[in-house]
Specification:
alpha+beta, Immunoglobulin-like, Neutral Protease, domain 2, 8-stranded mixed beta sheet, 6-stranded mixed beta sheet, 33 strands, binds (3S)-3,7-diaminoheptanoic acid, binds zinc ion, metal-binding, alanyl aminopeptidase activity, zinc ion binding, Peptidase_M1_pepN_C_sf
Length: about 900
């Protein structure tokens, strides 16, 4: 397999101006005709034109109307090369045959539940027709679709519908025209039996936009929330970024077979059905929130991604980091900012930090790839979003907005790079960003240590920072990064001290804002070692550092447990209250892991129980914040902090602490369950979601107890639930322990919901991710359950992905979990390399475990790498993991 490097980027030799596509969709084969008007980049230079094409059968090729003969072009398994095209502009016409019905990779044109649909990002367009499949080729498209009218009554593509009509033989056609230039990865086509929920949105300039959400007829009632989310997103982008929608129609199509969440094709977004369809009975609060976020995300791409796109795939974070940041802020504005931030930071820490510390670590802008699809990662997306967030932290809301305005003004209609975004931020604000660009090129999570000291005579308080960035593959030595640390100081009453000036770099700097002291200031840490001294500090403060998680780093401070308990109780920065509790919990868990490994009895610090109790009973707090604050850090997070990860010890300790908390706070938890039951009909708003979150978190704790009364309570909650959030939480609570109650409840749930594949997927995931001993057997059995299908990505993510998410069973010391995954990956790779490659990633951190586990996991990776006909996708992940 060939590795592609950022440093090798070259401008294309030819640009494409207009592209007219014509599809004749058939039951056996589909014929694609493409007419492209081509302009050489340098006039008169007739270098070869290299077109990408994979799994295509070339029927004919013409230049300026003349059919080319063999010898005029060269065809190999991945390209069509026109050896000597005319100098000057010319028209290329190709006719190609493809087999969408046989396409199980779900990339290019394929069928999902009887309907045709496409997925072109990153490099799927080359499976549709011969093309320069790269994002810096931006052209205007028309698309004519012809198909059987009864089988495919709905025919959709990008842009506006300009003509449609009936044809002979029961066929019909539609002609679509997209007035905006776009890269081919944003091309889309859908044909099938679909119905739409219709609505309209009037833009800020008064244009009326038709909104349509398309699904198979039976799913239509479940699109109300998606439509609400779309309209909210359109409005938010106008208000917050001044971005108006640019066409008169916006379509969303829901399909059940989709590799990822969704795709932002110009004016024709295609969604995995799990991120569109929701009803109170079948979707949880988490599903509702995910739909809001992803509908927003794909819509926001219209400006950040589509109008301004990426020059090459290395720049992916230019659109994804920025758009994730935008969707995070959108969800914050519509819900609770702190709770949203906690969720996003947790995700970053659990998945991205782990990637950054393993064999697949790569910068936000990778330097190389074998298969681009492997780089749609938490680093490019989530760490990329943190990088964008840092601009905003440094510039403030208004400065950031000036930056995005300039970015759109400069680059509308262009394919650009991360430096262009950086330059717009800098130039719009005349800002000094020091070495900020290192965030794009250096991989690894910076580790920052901070020590503090108070000088009672001088009334000064000093913070000394030191930073290192750990080595990552291909980057042994790192430079210090530019880290914005938002900081405040708490007085002995827990109130913020007013901050007005700081000694830094031998100078006294004012941190006041408009002459007024501030509660939080952003320290710009740029060196390996650096000191900041706050002046006029009347008493010894407790520092609150990295407020709102102002940089994606690991921070080690010299705060004592008492300081942390104080911050947990008082910090005005709610994120840091949660953070203080998490640091305490991590310390406790790590110390108990040592006890477990030494066969000592496990104990739980009463002060911690007390701290949790105070949070539980604090009625001034947001209920979802309470739910988050009483949730212990995940097992992965704790394993990440160990020299040698020990899944059994971490699992046992986490279970012990949960049970201990449940038993000591039993009455309080029971009260919370009873006080927060759902009495009215389901409403998706923050207050109601928060109430359900608290109730269900409490229920989960209680269910860890061996207690008749509690078993009754949990069953009662299951039976009386009126929405999926409550029903599924109760089911999960019951399913914590093996036995008849569990078996009965799981069977009952399946009986009730077997007609709804999205709910059945939850049922798969709940069982596969279970920590009950020897679960690999059950998962094996579920593979042959009639509702399971290896060809459907959602089912694979639920059953196989779910299993890998359970550390005790996946990392079972007898190697049964590894063997299970190894076999599946090889099988899956033949059907769908992208999904197989996601699954194989579960092995990538095998070196973190003990020798026995290492050998077992390594053996599976070696088996995979040597499998016949392995895809580049899986090869890249597996071989890099072994390296
Ligand atoms: N841009 C798509 C992801 C495409 C993944 C290709 N393997 C969805 C998104 O991030 O909005
Ligand atoms: Zn995206």
């Amino acid at each position: 397999p060939k590795e592609i490097f950022l440093k090798d980027y070259k401008l294309p030799e030819y640009y494409f101006d207009t592209v007219d596509l014509s599809f004749s969709l058939g039951e056996e084969k589909t014929i694609v005709s493409a007419k492209i008007s081509i302009v050489p980049r340098v006039d008169g230079a007739a270098s070869p034109l290299v077109l990408d094409g994979v799994d295509l059968k070339l029927i004919s090729v013409k230049i300026n109307g003349n059919e080319l003969k063999e010898g005029d072009f060269h065809l190999d398994a991945r390209h069509l090369i026109l050896t000597s095209p005319p100098s000057g502009n010319f028209i290329l016409e190709t006719v190609t045959e493809i087999l969408p019905q046989k396409n199980t990779s779900l990339e290019g044109l394929y069928k999902s539940s009887g309907n045709f649909c496409t997925q072109c990002e990153a490099e799927g367009f080359r499976k549709i027709t011969f093309y320069q499949d790269r994002p810096d080729i931006m052209a205007k498209y028309t698309c004519r679709i012809e198909a059987d009218k009864s089988l495919y009554p709905v025919l959709l593509s990008n842009g506006n519908l300009i003509e449609q009509g009936d044809l002979e033989g029961g066929k019909h056609f539609a002609l679509w025209e997209d007035p905006f230039k776009k890269p081919c990865y944003l091309f889309a086509l859908v044909a099938g039996q679909l119905e739409s929920r219709d609505d309209t949105f009037t833009t800020c300039s008064g244009r009326k936009v038709a909104l349509r959400i398309w699904t198979p007829p039976e799913d239509l009632p479940k699109t109300e929330h998606a439509m609400y989310s779309l309209k909210a997103a359109m409005k938010w982008d106008e208000e917050v970024y001044g971005r108006e929608y640019d066409l008169d129609i916006f379509n969303i199509v829901s399909v059940p077979d989709f590799n990822m969440g969704a795709m932002e094709n110009k004016s024709l977004n295609i969604f995995n059905s799990k991120l569109v369809l929701a009803s109170p009975e079948t979707a949880t609060d988490a599903d509702y929130a995910a739909i809001l976020g992803v509908i927003g995300h794909e819509y926001f791409h219209n400006w950040t991604g589509n109008r301004v796109t990426c020059r090459d795939w290395f720049q992916l974070s230019l659109k994804e980091g920025l758009t994730v940041f935008r969707d995070q802020e959108f969800s914050s504005d519509l819900g609770s900012r702190t709770v949203k931030r906690i969720g996003d930071v947790s995700k970053l820490r659990i998945y991205q930090f782990s990637q950054d510390a393993g064999p697949m670590a790569h910068p936000v802008r990778p330097h190389s790839y074998i298969k681009m699809d492997n780089f749609y990662t938490v680093t490019v997306y989530e760490k990329g979003a943190e990088v964008v967030r840092m601009y905003k932290t440094l510039l403030g809301s208004q400065g950031f907005r000036k930056g995005t305005d300039l970015y759109f003004q400069r680059h509308d209609g262009q394919a650009v790079t991360c430096e262009d975004f950086f330059a717009a931020m800098r130039d719009a604000n005349d800002a000094d960003f020091a070495n900020f660009l290192l965030w794009y090129s250096q991989a690894g999570t910076p580790v920052v240590k901070v020590t503090s000291s108070y000088n009672a005579e001088a009334h000064t308080f000093s913070l000394k920072f030191s930073q290192t960035v750990p080595p990552t593959p291909g980057q042994p030595i790192k430079e210090p990064m530019f880290i914005p640390v938002a900081a405040g100081l708490l007085d002995s009453n827990g109130k913020d001290m007013p901050l007005s000036s700081i000694y830094h770099d031998g100078k006294l700097e004012s941190v006041a804002c408009g002459g007024q002291p501030v509660n939080t200031t952003v320290l710009r840490v740029t060196k390996a070692e650096e000191e900041f001294v706050f002046t006029d500090v009347p008493e010894k403060p407790i520092p609150s550092l990295l407020r709102g998680y102002s940089a994606p780093i690991r921070l080690h401070s010299d705060l004592t447990d008492n300081d942390l308990f104080f911050l947990l109780a008082h910090d005005s920065d709610e994120f840091n209250r949660w953070e203080a509790g998490q640091i305490l919990a991590r310390n406790i868990m790590l110390s108990q892991v040592v006890n477990f490994q030494k066969d000592n009895a496990l104990v739980l610090d009463p002060q911690f129980v007390h701290g949790i109790k105070c949070i539980l009973l604090d009625s001034s707090l947001d209920k979802e914040f309470i739910a988050k604050a009483i949730t212990l850090p995940g097992e992965g997070e704790i394993m990440d902090m160990m020299e040698v990860a020990d899944p059994d010890a971490v699992h046992a300790v986490r279970k012990f602490i949960r049970k201990q908390l449940a038993s000591e706070l039993k009455q309080e938890l029971i009260n919370l369950v009873k006080e927060n039951r759902s009495t009215e009909k389901y409403v998706f708003d923050h207050a109601n979601m928060a109430r359900r979150a608290l109730k269900n978190t409490a229920l989960g704790y209680l269910a860890s107890l061996e207690d008749e009364e509690i078993t009754e309570l949990v069953l009662h909650e299951y039976k009386t639930a009126t929405n999926m959030t409550d029903q599924f939480s109760a089911l999960a609570a019951i399913a914590q322990k093996p036995g008849k109650a569990r078996d009965d409840a799981l069977a009952d749930f399946y009986n009730q919901w077997q007609h709804d594949y999205l709910v059945v997927n939850k049922w798969f995931a709940l069982q596969s991710s279970s920590d009950i001993p020897g679960n690999v057997e059950n998962v094996h059995k579920l593979l042959s359950h009639p509702a399971f299908d290896l060809k459907n990505p959602n089912k694979v993510y639920s059953l196989i992905g779910g299993f890998c998410a359970s550390p005790v069973n996946f990392h079972a010391k007898d190697g049964s979990g590894y063997k299970f995954l190894g076999e599946i990956v090889v099988q899956l790779d033949k059907l769908n390399p992208q999904v197989a490659s996601r699954m194989v990633s579960a092995f990538s951190r095998w070196k973190r475990y003990d020798e026995t586990r290492q050998n077992l996991a390594k053996a599976q990776l070696e088996m995979i790498v040597s499998a016949n006909g392995l895809s580049e996708n899986v090869y890249e992940i597996a071989s890099k993991s072994l390296a």
